[in-house]
Amino acid sequence: MFQKLKGFRDIYPESMRARRIVFDKINATAREFGFHEIDAPSVEHLELFRVKSGDEIVEQTFSFVDKGGRSITLIPELTPTVARMLASRKDLIKPVKWFSFPKMWRYEEPQSGRLREFYQFNADIFGVAGIEADAEVLALAMEILDSLGLKGKYEMRVSDRLLMEEILRKLGVERIEETFRVIDKRDKIPEEQFLGKLQDIAGSDAGLEISEILSVKGTVSEVLSKIGESERGEDLLELQELLAAYGKEITLDLSIVRGLAYYTGVVFEAHDSKGEFRAILGGGRYDNVVQLFGGEPTPAVGFGMGDAVLELIMKREGIWPEERMEVDIFVAIVPGFRKEATQIAMKLRKEGFRVDMDLTGRSLGKQLKYANRINARYAIIVGEEVREGKVVAKNMKSGGQRTVEIGKLKEVINEN
Ligand code: HAM
User: Fold this and answer.
1) Is the shortest distance between the CB of 283 and ligand 1 below 6 Å?
2) Where are the beta strands (DSSP E) in 336-398?
């Protein structure tokens, strides 16, 4: 027997049902916020990711040379693709608000919440330079988590490349990009080693100060009061105020840098409050990418959220939907009545019920056992009574059954 590849998942119906409920809720929340759904290719030129995503993600691609000699990759993220799509359409009315929920692939070491193939919900706004778009995207991310039942179970940690640059410049740091790269490794290396690296790049005193700033977390006002006067701080205070109107709260945490190279302003990640899992979602502003792909200069901000950590945290909180199969009705057939049963099944299907029917010709007992296993709410038994326009309707939960006119079936089934 073949084994599936490491880091890939087989998703069986019980689990797919739960996933579908969660995905539908997420998509519905995006629609509530006025985002429009798009879809995109699963493969792209590898070069697209070389341009701006950064080396780390290119190293993680499932890439290959196709029969035409082109370097191609399965998409490891969607942002370059949506930027490419935007760049190639000049007629779009701005702001553009797009969402999608594709599969993507990263060749990384599979571990808790990290797979080689996963779904990632994406939402992005193009064409708004102001902090209003950052607020709308952050509010959507938080509303998604809240509406799934995770309110209070996560923390939205926000940082800002512009504020960090301002701070680093004031401290006399010149190698800003390198400093960001070290800060991004903060949680992955021992504290002393981290400080050492920081001091190598920024100098001894500045290194210490940066390290202190990184450990301050709180509301925007709290953190700003600790780091002193700042121009960019005003924008972040406004962001906090705008979010308050959405009923959402953020934590300013300057240690959030994010690995992707294209971010230019606000960056954010939602983390499990109990600190058990990796980031639930991440995003930020990337104002230069569309132009890089040949489009008009277009400011952009968005985020991506994978299904893996989300599933782990929802399962821990006991709010992941029940993993079970289900149909509304199973049509059981007494030998000789298949034609009538099929007509009844089709009528009920057209009325909007999810209807399965016997395809095996096995005994009624076995048919009902099957109906039970697929969690049918009702079993309709089609037999002799059908000659008088009637069938037996069995409520699978209570076990109660009665003979019902076919015309009244809908009513009976809708009763409970
Ligand atoms: P990212 O931080 O690389 O950002 O990924 C965003 C989210 O995707 C992560 O927080 C996690 O939920 C999920 N994710 C990433 N890698 C894996 C993996 N190997 N297995 C399971 N889940 C994973 C981006 O991808 C940006 N393109 C997001 C963005 C959109 N920024 C602006 N717009």
Assistant:
1) yes
2) 355-357, 376-382, 390-395
